[in-house]
Structure formats: structure tokens, C-alpha cells
Amino acid sequence: MGYENLLLKKEGNICILTINRPKALNALNSKVLEELSDAVDQIENDKDIHVVIITGEGKAFVAGADILEMKDMTPETARKFAKQGLEVFRKIELMEKVVIAAVNGFALGGGCELAMCCDIRIASEKAKFGQPEVGLGITPGFAGTQRLSRLVGIAKAKELIFTGDMIDANEAERIGLANKVVKADELMNTAIELAKNIASKGQIAVKYSKIAINRGFETDIETGMETERNLFSLCFATYDQKEGMTAFIEKRKPEFKNQ
Ligand code: CO8
């Protein structure tokens, strides 16, 4: 399917998904969210893709949900729109592939929320993060109140959400919102190198690790440890476990088949 607002590019086992609506700083309207949902399904079903990079075209990653579309919403239509965004972002968070956000510029409101549902955030030194919704008279609506406090702690999340202030990439890294800050012209290469590194490992093990971390983060430690134990033991039913350990003993690089 061709998209109006997205670009999809495959490079080996990596897929780069670019939000491509630069005239509106890649603001998320319902059409962009619909396309994003479709693209995520397509990527999830493509066995050749191991790692996804999400980025934005132009000077923004995503400058939020589309304010023009939201302006005249009623509580009912706002609820529907919020559901659409929440569902797409949750789908990204639960993808069985690693998702890296390459944050090239403004990641505000829904843009910060999109970055937060990715597994890892690499920020350009030009990136700016924030949840400016209270300045528009609304709360965050695509789970910013939930994911930001889980990522950076409740106190910092409250400060950022209550003030609506933007922070730069270095501050985002300092508080744990960005994993790493790089020069603008090194952003995509850094993200691609990271993606290649992850894509070169046993993908079942990477997938199980993601599930264990995500489930463990949303439950108590006993349940989390049980999840890890189950997935850890399942690894021993895979070709990759035999290959990974045999290769170590034979002092050679493993050749994973992801099975
Ligand atoms: N929605 C729609 N259009 C936008 C948005 C947006 N979020 N952001 C920027 N644009 C448009 C501008 O209107 C402008 O269009 P035009 O050229 O036609 O006037 C174009 O993009 C370029 O923007 P600027 O001229 O403003 O560019 P600047 O470099 O001067 O400023 C900023 C960049 C600081 C990023 C500025 O554009 C800005 O403040 N944007 C809005 C940021 C914001 O408030 N985001 C949060 C939106 S609310 C949200 O995301 C809630 C998510 C959950 C919703 C759930 C709903 C139910």
C-alpha cells in the first residue's frame, strides 16, 4: 500500500519508517494514525525485518497531534481520536521487533508520546522534547501521563507536563528520556548501526527479552521473573540457542537462523 504521509524503506533486515508530512511538522491527524497502524501491521508481518527505525521528515520528528483537526472536537470525537492514537502506539510498543526512534527534531505532545512507545530513543542534538498540552487547555492524550512517568520518574514527568516546557536533547538524555544524543548529521547512521547490531543477534532471544522487559515493567517482580524463566527456557527449544553456544565454544561467529 502506498502512503500519503509515510515513507517505508527497507535496508537489509532494517526498516526505516519516516513520518512524511513536513508542512505540518509531521503532526498526527487521523489519516496519519491510520496509515501508521497499517504500516506497523505490514512491518510486523514481514519476517525479513528485524529492527524498525521511526523518524520524521524535515525539522520535526512529530510536533504533536494535529491541532487543526482537534480544535472543534467534542468529548466523543476526542475520545475516539485518543483511542486511535493509544491503540497504534500500544501496537508499536508491543511489536515483536525492536523499534528505535531517531528523533531528528521537535518531539512534542503526540510526538513525544510516539517516541516513548519505541524501545530506544536516539536524539539529534537539534531534538526538542515536551508535552505542551496544558498550554492548549488539554491533558496529554496518547499516554504521555503514563509513559513519561514510567520513563523518567513521577516528579520529572509532573514538572514537564504541568509546565508544558520543552527540553533539549541533552536534558532529555540526562533524565533518561533519550538514550543518546548525537550530531544531527550522524543521527541516521547511529540509529542504523544500532539497528544492525541488534539485527545481528538471535532474533527470538531479542523478541523474548523485549517481552520479558515490557511485561515485567507492567507487573510485580515475581510475575516478571516467572515470565523471564518461561521465555528463557523456551530459548532452549530453538536452533539459535544451539548455534549461539556451539559457535562460542568453536570460537567462531554464530550464524543465526532466527528459528
Ligand atoms: N498540529 C497542526 N499543525 C501544526 C502542529 C500541530 N501539532 N505543529 C505545527 N504545525 C504547523 C503550523 O501550524 C505551521 O503551519 P502553517 O505553515 O500552515 O502555518 C507549520 O506546522 C510550521 O509550524 P510553525 O510555523 O509553528 O513552526 P515554528 O518552527 O515556528 O515552531 C513549533 C515549531 C514550536 C513546534 C510549533 O509549531 C508548535 O508549537 N507546534 C505545536 C506543538 C504542540 O503544541 N504540540 C502538541 C499538540 S497536542 C497533542 O499532541 C496531544 C496528543 C494527544 C491527543 C489526543 C486527542 C484526543
UniProtKB/TrEMBL annotation:
One of its GO terms (molecular function) is hydro-lyase activity. Coiled coil: none annotated. InterPro entries: ClpP/crotonase-like_dom_sf, Enoyl-CoA_hyd/isom_CS, Enoyl-CoA_hydra/iso, Enoyl-CoA_hydra_C. Pfam families: ECH_1. The keyword Cell division does not apply. Keywords: Lyase. GO terms for biological process: fatty acid beta-oxidation. NCBIfam families: PRK05809.1. Belongs to the enoyl-CoA hydratase/isomerase family. This is Enoyl-CoA hydratase. It comes from Caloranaerobacter azorensis DSM 13643. The lineage of its organism: Bacteria, Bacillati, Bacillota, Tissierellia, Tissierellales.
